[in-house]
Design brief:
The protein starts with a helix and ends in an 8-residue tail after the last helix. With about 300 residues, the chain is α+β, with helices and mostly antiparallel strands. The model has no long low-confidence stretch (mean pLDDT about 90). It contains eight helices and 15 strands. The strands form five sheets. It has a four-stranded mixed sheet with strand order 2-9-8-5, with no helix packed on it. Strands 12-13-15-14 form a four-stranded antiparallel sheet. The protein is elongated.
């Protein structure tokens, strides 16, 4: 029995010695060759603050605008005090809110500076001439900035015509009578109408309520004048129903009250423009006119 006890004690001692040797070997392996302690992993340096423009390059047509997003890194969020400047306002202008507007064909740089930190970012802006037929966000545009060619002659758009019929039928069910006074007009028809108005009232007055040839929405086949060409129509039951409901059928009141300085035309409660139900609803709920919604101008070149 004594011999068994001695052998067991010897084995336990041997196992303990092996464990100590293994631990010491692992510790030595973890140390550098010179025997010094293993250095701690490096701590990542804090990123330098920066002003980020997204995107940092944009392309717009003459008369079209955009507004890049600006963030302050690494904190994130939008800085409160920003200063905007274009190095060539004849190509692209920028306002205090960062709205960039194409003025003339060319390339320029818009710089945005954070007043609190003097950080800045640059945005390359390319401005191209607008096409003969201009679509912005999928919407055909005809206004004082964007014109249609003389040979653009589509007639009444089928989808718009069907939507108009549906709207007139829905209004009838509510005892509201709507009818079309004017629909599609060709370039030549608009030229004759505009010439008559300028002969009667002068060009400055005519430009407030009549489009020059090529600039009329009626030439798109997507616009209709309903019931009356008097502003008092807006106060009638028909006019009020139209203003409150036309977006449900894909239309907007194209020239709202108090928007003449933006649309280029006086209030026309009778003039509706087809955009499709989804877009018309978005424009209606925004409270914006189409120029504001698309960030475009409506100004004759001369």
């Amino acid at each position: 029995m004594k011999r068994v006890y001695v052998v067991s004690l010897f084995l336990c001692t041997l196992l303990l010695l092996c464990a100590c040797i293994a631990f010491a070997s692992a510790e030595d392996a973890a140390k550098p060759a010179d025997g010094s302690a293993k250095p701690a992993p490096p701590v990542a340096a804090e990123p330098e603050p920066a002003l980020l423009a997204e995107p940092d390059a944009v392309s717009v047509t003459v008369g079209q605008g955009c507004r890049p997003k600006i963030a302050l890194l690494p904190e994130g969020g939008e800085p409160q005090a920003l200063f905007w400047q274009s190095d060539n306002p004849a190509v692209a202008a920028v306002d205090a809110d960062g709205n960039i507007m194409g003025i003339g064909a060319g390339v320029c740089t818009v710089t945005v500076t954070c007043a609190d930190s003097a950080l800045c970012a640059e945005i390359r802006v390319e401005v191209t001439p607008h096409a003969e037929i201009t679509y912005i966000n999928g919407i055909l545009i005809a206004n004082k900035t964007f014109a249609l060619p003389a040979d653009y002659n589509p007639g009444v758009d089928e989808e718009a015509g069907n939507a108009l019929e549906g709207m007139i039928a829905a209004a009838r069910e509510e005892s509201i009578a709507l009818w079309v006074v004017s629909g599609f007009r060709s370039y030549n028809t608009q030229a004759a109408i505009y010439a008559n108005y300028t002969a009667r009232d002068g060009a400055a007055a005519a430009d407030r309520y009549s489009a020059r040839p090529g600039h009329s929405e009626h030439q798109t086949g997507l616009a209709f004048d309903l019931n009356s060409l008097e502003q008092t129509f807006g106060a009638t039951p028909e006019g009020q129903w139209l203003a409150a409901n036309c977006h449900k059928y894909g239309f907007i009141i194209r020239y709202p009250e108090e928007k003449e300085d933006i649309t280029g035309y006086m209030y026309e409660p009778w003039h509706v423009r087809y955009l499709g139900e989804e877009t018309a609803r978005e424009v209606f709920e925004s409270g914006l006119c189409l120029e504001e919604y698309l960030n475009i101008t409506s100004v004759y070149a001369e």
